[in-house]
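Continuing the batch. This is chain 6 of the set; chains 1 through 5 are on the previous pages. Same settings as before, nothing changed between runs. Recording input and output for traceability.
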Amino acid sequence: MRRNTMLWQAITATVLTGGLVVGYVGLTPASAAGSNLALGKPVTASSVEGAGFEPAKAVDGSTSTRWASLEGVDNQWIQIDLGSVTDVAQVVLKWEAAYAKSYRVEVSDDGSTWRQVYSTTTGNGATDDLAVSGSGRYLRVYGTQRATAYGYSLYEVEVYGDSPTSPDPTTPPDSTTNLLAGRPTSVSSVEGTGFEGGKAVDGSTSTRWASVEGVDPQWLRVDMGSTKTVGRVVLKWEAAYAKSYRVEVSDDGSTWRQVYSTTTGDGGTDDLAVSGSGRYLRVYGTQRATAYGYSLYEVEAYGTGSTTPPPSDTANLDDPAKKEIAMKLVSSFENSSLDWRAQFAYIEDIGDGRGYTAGIIGFCSGTGDMLDLVERYTQKKPSNPLAPYLPALREVNGTDSHAGLGTSFENAWRTAAQDSVFTKTQEEERDRVYFNPAVGQAKTDGLKALGQFAYYDAAVMHGEEGFRAIRSRAVSRVKPPSQGGNEVTFLHAFLDEREEEMRKEEAHSDTTRVSTAQRRFLNEGNLHLNIPLYWSVYGESFSITS
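Output for chain 6:
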């Protein structure tokens, strides 16, 4: 029900494996597979500081020459033509002192439509050695925020093919066994007896590790016994969670390689897809979210892969893995992020006449679904942070008013989002009000997963009544498959009506979530919504490739 143009903040890489795959600092150029694919290739740039700083200097193999953009200007880029479509597994950026604080790495088949394979908002210069996954003829480094008053400057941009760190495909690592269960731990500190590090790997969510209170940074380290390839880390936070932290791996417990970091942690359960290997794994908290310390019920790690089986080619949208794809698509439309689980705490007024918009699906204070959500939450847990606001929610329902709500309500919402009861209730309401009715109707109309998603996304933005009206207009034009019509023709008619409806509201007048996403899948003939998926929305490019 909302369009929020927040850019990626909680992740440092694009989602590529049904979850979050993070580019990590681990490979060195010497260990890269094959030769530098960018060396001596044609290159263009958004600007040049002056003679001697041309973009070709960044692919000449010398660290005594460099490309430099105009000073004092953001949104600058350098683009390399690799000559043909190429699989890219590693990108090495060697920054001069004028480095990017925020940038992204993208690939393209045509130099026009870009797919993001890495992004960060916490760049720190020097050498960035990034493990990525993508393919294209062109590669672009796109700086969005300078770290200095100057421009952007790179000594070298290096590109390499298949990564040697990938596990042997004939012996895939176990993705269902917790590699940390019962393993030796060490910690930076302990709050007191009963809160030792071993409590975070004992398999119980009734025990926990807790650090001393009021002190940053703090860490917990687990010895996995031998080198393990890690594809997923699950952190189950107590109320004393980390706002900023990183996950690292190490071969010797001394030199660490980062596989994930965030500065926008919101507690609860963090289920992270990562990519790295080492004997030791460490969770390193750099900023507390509360006045207390850091506390984890459990830290779990799993081998490369997902515990959710991949969807079959013809699976419906309610298949667990395909539903995960649907959630990521909607999150890219609503929050410019594929990390839909990071949106439980989201709340703002986007000025669309619906009052507050909040949570994973955009529950609105002016349309009744936020009220329904809080009422159901309160039925389950009467003493919750949002219960005192029920009278005000009933009063503002049907309006865009904030009367009786305001900042204290926003804070209460964010506090409630740390409660697993509330997050579960959000998911239940999403399914009850939007997902299940839309998917059910699509199945009745004979539509496959793409059509089921088109119905669901329409319900998210326009509500059940609005979605039904759009469908009725489409049915009046073209028969759905269940009535003997052509599925592709019907879906084009439905998306036509959807875009027309969106243009009626200024807040929803940008129709790219249809025109350059769902319509693209349809034009590609991807009626089953199978991966890989590439799309763009509001000028940002996204992908789910495996």
